[in-house]
Predict the 3D structure of the following.
Amino acid sequence: MRTTDRRSMFALAAALGAGAALPAAARPLDQVLSSRRLRAGINPTLPPFGTFNDRNQIDGFDADIAREIARRMNIELEIVQVGSPDRIPFLQADRIDIVLGAITRTVERALVIDYTQPLHTQSMVVLTKASGTAVPINAPADLNNRAVRLVQVRGTVGVPWIQANAAQAQVTLLDNYPDCFRALAQGRADAMVDVAESVVIPMRNFQGVQWRILDQVLASFWVGIGVQKGNTGLRDVLNVVLFEMHRSGFVNTTWEKWFGVPMTTPIPFNPMF
């Protein structure tokens, strides 16, 4: 079997393993332009990346980014609601042209979709409280203590980090963020490890707690916009549009509008893509 055949079969197996449908041909750039419509998949359950506004319309950081992309391409935007498991299958089935929604760049995903240059980053950090913890927590290394009680959402990126770096801590795994924050606020846990972008909104729901995010970033994840594998014409235009959106400051301004703070790990300014 030729090398290219083996790679194709590997990519297809990865797509099916990720729950993706068999690919349907993506609309090439000329069809997107001739239809004057860009279909963008956005997940409204990841505030503030995506959320429903008072008029029950999908809004948020990703919606603002998609609107600006369409404006700069001089075409109309159609927002399509997607969930986290739908993001790649909707691209594969040609139900959307691009997908946003904190779609972190991974090797497994890169086998089945193409990414633009990074739109934003996600930064894994330690969230704790200013006081009232079992032991003082001033650095990530302080978590590796039998007295420390950690709470985590099952399946999140913090779990393997804890297993590798804070194996002595007591760990409770829960199913969702509200339960984790409730445990922290009620003093049943001392800290959690997660991406800053996932904790900034839930923190606001417990305003009586003096939260503290440690300065040290444990890991950074790069997030681009996804297009169907091989749709290079559309991807290339999006890269130029994104570069101009970064250079003009639009991405950072929109980020601070929705998150209230600057991006923890800034995107390097690089025209080479």
Q: What stands out?
A: The longest strand covers residues 120-129. The longest helix spans residues 232-247. The mean pLDDT is 89.
